[in-house]
Amino acid sequence: MGDLIKRAAQDLIESRYAIALTGAGISTESGIPDFRGPSGVWTKNPQAERKAYQSYQGFLADPKKWWEERLRGVSLLGDLEKAEPNAGHYALVELETMGLLKCVITQNVDALHEKAGSVNVIEYHGSVLKLRCVDCGSRFKREEYTLERLRTEGALPPRCPKCRGVIKTDGVAFGEPIPKDVARRSLEEARKCDLMLICGTSAVVYPFADLPRLARERKDGVLETIIIEINADPTPLTEGKISDYLIRGKTGEILPRLVETIRRIRDR
Fold this sequence. Notes:
Low-confidence stretches: none
Strand content: 5-15%
Number of strands: 9
Radius of gyration: 19 Å
Order of helices and strands: HEHHHHEHEEEHEHEHEHEH
Shape: elongated
């Protein structure tokens, strides 16, 4: 593992435009369960997964009812707003501060990259701290809306102050399109990076899992992008030889070691 970390450090130092993709694996060390792992939320509760697949259609059919159920329910992931970043999140902030990491694209809705201090973050599946208008795409902080008061007053669903469209949580549900601005920015980042650091994602949720493949194959057919995986286990990216190499282990342990290795190389 040590040799692979040194290799990754050198690759990052020599990169021109490096980005990171992160998934549930980087947040499990902050006490947030994943969905599909051995102890995942849906592994333990298949009924919850079936319900999740129906959520967006329920919103479209009756947004008022959807909001009432949302406000009455308890998140299967716990209180995400109380979760704190871990060493993996802070290591990515360090890489950004060093000027090596240009962007983080995350599947996670827990806002831990933002809390840790990452500046250029694309929340591919939205954020627990935000609400979004499904008509014009405007986003708002949750605290801008007194949701409980709207519920007691029978004034749900909340409305957008800009276009009067219906507001939903920012998190992207199954069957819901990725917001156009997010999809566009993510594609731009994937296509221009020359190094992609993949941290804690199983790479089975699409279209997010397409980003490494897009980065790998340039328009001119020349393979230029180095793709490095940091994951507990191999993924379809490993097996399909999309990634150049896999550093196997916890992101909260490997990413800080990667930062320290870069510091040592630079201090020589």
